[in-house]
Amino acid sequence: MFYSETRKLIITAIAYHPLPEKSEYHHALYYMNHKIFQKVCRQMKSFFVRLNAISNLRSLPIHAEFKLTEGGDLISVELNPLRYGGFGFSGLSYYAHGQCPYLSFFLDKPYD
Questions:
Q1: Does the pTM exceed 0.85?
Q2: Could you give the CA distance from residue 8 to residue 95 in angstroms, rounded to a whole number?
Q3: What does residue 40 show for φ and ψ, rounded to 5 degrees?
């Protein structure tokens, strides 16, 4: 996600990382789909709107990680501007939707 020049919240991708039983496979799988997006997008937006009400951020990309509890609550684990668009998600969103999070951020344009 990123905050635009006008402080607007722009979510560029939401991915799910299931925790495997074997720790050797911990970083092996991330995926995204509409069901995951619907399940957590509202909570993520709420989190980032509250964060910006406190921090007053603009033109800032953020890689964010959350833990989803069994009760359906999100707990923030990591907020890191330096990892924005990492792990190949920029390529995934480009080839799946024709959207590039880097261009979106630098051109200050939300996804369509």
A1: no
A2: 25
A3: -120, -10
